[in-house]
Amino acid sequence: MRLHRHQLARLTPGGWDAVRGQARDELEQACLAHWADAGLPLVITQQRCGSGSDATVIAMGLSAPLRWERRRICLQVPRAEVLCFDEFPTGPQIAPLLPTRARAAWERLCAALRTAGATPRVYGSYGWQFLSGAGHLHGSSDLDLWLSAAEPQQADQIATLLHDFEAEGLRLDGELLFNGDSAVSWREWAAWRSGRCSAVLVKTMDGSRLLRTLDKLLGLQMSEAAL
Asked: What is the pTM of this model?
């Protein structure tokens, strides 16, 4: 199975045995013990050695809550020890985590995105808070979304909806995902499409590149010099 950005993975008991030994200190040992005992997922991260279905080891990680200093823990997991793959919650699922004053606007946005054929997935602090119930959120937490876009016009529509969203105390951030593995910040996409910049930074499971034409982005012809 092809991996994609912000994908989650749940491990077998053997997988947790394999990763708990990778802790760098007691803080990470305690965090990984909690994650294992609670059966929480890890997130797939950039794959320096390729992300094909034949990869025997997958790079993963987690974003720890305040209790463990918001440490970003990077791990190497044997693919054979992945119990199943999963996804971050959808927009409607995280609504109870939002400030009450922002929920009506958020529900309207989710409805508009659904009409546009897009399903927002929530990662970052809000996504981890939903999954773990721990202290991931803080006063300046952005609401990070990723949304798949099938073609440029749909991406334009999504970016416009996100740009026009207004809710007190809530700032949206995140990415548009093309072809399953080419992610562009929706803010950068909007700037590029309006001519305010000549290139966009595209992130994939294997690295990051600057692209200047739609055919390369939509056709996955990633021939620009890697950053």
From this structure: 0.91
